[in-house]
Major facilitator superfamily (MFS) profile domain-containing protein
Amino acid sequence: MEGLENMAFISNAVSLVTYFYGYMNFSLTKSANTLTNFMGTSFLVALFGGLISDTYLSRFKTCVLFGCIELLGYAALTVQAHFDQLRPPPCQGLAISQTTQCQAADSGQAAILFTGLYLVAFGTSGVKAALPSLGADQFDERDPKRSSFFNWFLLSFTAGAIIGVTFIVWISTNQGWDWAFGVCTVAVLVSIMVLSMGKSLYRNNVPKGSPLLRIIQVFAVAIRNRKLPQPGIEDELHEVAGVHNEILPRTDQFRFLDRAAIEHTSDDGSTSVNLGPWRICTVTQVEETKIIIRMLPIILSTVFMNTCLAQLQTFTVQQSTTMNTHVLGIKMPGSSIPVIPLVFMFIFIPIYDCVFVPIARKINGIPTGIRYLQRIGVGLVLSAISMAVAGVVETRRKSVAREHGMVDSLQPLPMNVLWLGYQYSIFGLADMFTFVGLIQFFYEESSAGMKSLGTAISWCSSAFGYYLSSVVVDVVNKVSGGWLDNNNLNRDKLDYFYWLLAGMSVVNFGVYLVCASWYRYKKVEVIYKEENHAEGKQVEMLNAV
């Protein structure tokens, strides 16, 4: 399902800016911002999908439901792309200086576009929240194959993306956008059918209540008990075996929340635990809340990397439209440029999982080869390098335009599009480290009752990155006097913008190091019961993980 669904999603992520600009008559800046807002929503609403999955539906049902919503969105976009009256008159073939004369989409046309877009965004967000957790749930807690699953999940993600940015982008360029959206519709439909075929085989989670409600209860009870003395020993705190047979031992961070688990005593000195969840919480519930708080600095310190990714997905595609796109005698659509980092990822993911991880595991004894936060850090360093390389390549591209007197020309520059592959390749490696590192970190560190929500939180890094991207572009334009304010990249200062992003990425990495050093990995005590048939007794076993 991931391969097919992502084939549809990524093909649009890399090429919709061209559809907005060339077919909906949006300006270059509006096209870029519309795409980044769409992408940001696709990842942010994953929080809703995660809550639905953990609270009401199983992960399987969540994937099917939201997949159907995504299907409706692609169907709406297909209908609009097919009928000319649902789009503004074409405005292609004009000189760059005349593009402001194009007729804008009317309110009805815009309504159809944004309805389709955000149905896709809402649908894919639920799939993104529940699908990784559904796959990881099929492995036992201590099974080392669960760590490999996330790498192979990324490989499926990448394989689908490769097909999307080549085959589907080729269809949109040569056969029309209605055909491209139509193929996306069929792909999502088939992905839902394929997932449903395995319904009887899956190990499904049973929702045990809202994790968000449990977090709110902790804060509410802690505030209610704020005048009580700080508990000194863990025996003073309330704990029972959780609904997921998982107990989180008390930690010494955010100790003010421990007041939510203080046991109340009656007048005769006996302990009373027959209180509602709004009067007393368990230690596990308190620690569940602490985990979310500890995760926040990590997620915030990885946001800027996704801001850089958003810039590559928008401005790099526009750069490619000004360059020679013939590769080995074949004309390569600019929207297919992301195939370069995807191919790098497709090659290196198996090498990482089958070669690097086993060697690293023998050296340091860590099942995943390196810890999640170390893996994320490597990705952040590579993303900063990628931005610096992007600045150098853009400087070279503009110099070629000036040397050949083609600053205002619509003809392709005598510079091959593969020059953009340098920045994209490095960022592809960065994504390989950070993407899986984040998803696995939030899945493994989340408590048993909020695995889908934890996975959804990892996608929030991408969401905030895309939203921040729009803000960064607007702020830079205002402060710089219009570095990116023209519809002509040959006159813009995109190279300055890339260098600015590189410098900010270095600062962001420093912040991440501080946050990662402060973070404490969770410790879990898992309760399970084994039947002793010889004595007819239940033997409770407590394992510290």
Notes: The longest helix spans residues 372-403. The domain at 1-207 is CATH 1.20.1250.20 (Growth Hormone; Chain: A;).
